[in-house]
Amino acid sequence: MSGSDLWLIVVAGGPLILLLAIAYVLITRRRRGPAERRESDRAAEHLYQEEGD
After folding, report:
1. Could you say which DSSP state residue 10 is in?
2. Which domain, by its residues, includes 43?
3. 10 Å Cβ neighbour count for 20?
4. Pick from 41, 25, 44: which is nearest to 33 by CA?
């Protein structure tokens, strides 16, 4: 394996690994349901009310 072959692997493989990592995160990211969203909104509103006092 020559130096140019190694650079080809680095230059082509780096972005490929990054692309695979981004795709994995986007596919496996868990989305909050309506109940979790409401609970989060209520908690944020409660914190804002505490700051105002």
Report:
1. H
2. 3-52
3. 10
4. 41
